[in-house]
Amino acid sequence: MKFLLIEDNYDLAQAICARMQLDGHVIDHAGTIADAIAFSDSGEYDLILLDVMLPDGDGRDFLRRHRAGKGVTPIIVLTARSQVSDRISLLDLGADDYVTKPFDHAELEARCRAVLRRNAGSAQTVVRMGDVAFDPVAGVLTVGETLVSLRNKELRLLEVLFNAPGQIFPKQKLVDRLFSYDDDVSENAIEVYIGRLRKHLEGSQLQISTHRGLGYRLDHD
Questions:
Q1: DSSP character for 21?
Q2: N or C terminus: fewer CB in 10 A for the chain?
Q3: pLDDT tens across 73-82, in order?
Q4: Domains of the chain by range and CATH?
Q5: H or E element at residue 53
Q6: Could you report how far apart the first and last alpha carbons of the chain are, in Å?
Q7: Is the preceding peptide bond at 55 cis, omega within 30 degrees of 0?
Q8: pLDDT at 121
Q9: What is the rounded distance in angstroms from the CA atom of residue 194 to the CA atom of residue 175?
Q10: Please, which contacts does 137-144 make with residues 24 or more away whose CB atoms are closer than 8 Å?
């Protein structure tokens, strides 16, 4: 999944990014509200991690702006404020959850998983299509009775396709979803990952079709 981290503490931000990347997530980092707005206005994210105290303002201003603009991306606030009134205020503004600093990275990861499950509308995240079952949060793909091992980018690409079966995704859109702004990649990388996924899905009731000049689509027999 693709996350946006809004945090001005460089060391903490690097630690969070490293942990999330180990789990296979793509993460963009903004150190100011201005950068966060630029990221959120130009890209799509599955989850936003938002610090409250930022160099150019209060993270709650970003939260207000995001919700006022009908942004539905779930937001977990990272805050050093522990008073109940502060936490209630954040939730009332539209935060989906909060983590009080200092926090254990395992707790943050668990809260991310919980918020993503809730956002999917269920405590379970397994999606089934024909003889294929996919759990993007747990990173598990089952084709028939076979458990398939996926590399991180393959998993995230399949997640994008599973979220919108029948929809054609242009290569550039897939690049934007799979890689951060700092990654130097070409659209050819998408062809490689598509080829790998097709091999994993061989013999199943799912296929990834190519639409020349348009992109790729996940189809179900």
A1: H
A2: C
A3: 999 999 887 6
A4: 2-119 (3.40.50.2300), 127-220 (1.10.10.10)
A5: strand 53-54
A6: 26
A7: no
A8: 61
A9: 12
A10: 137/113, 139/23, 139/24, 141/200, 143/200, 143/201, 143/203, 143/204, 144/203, 144/204
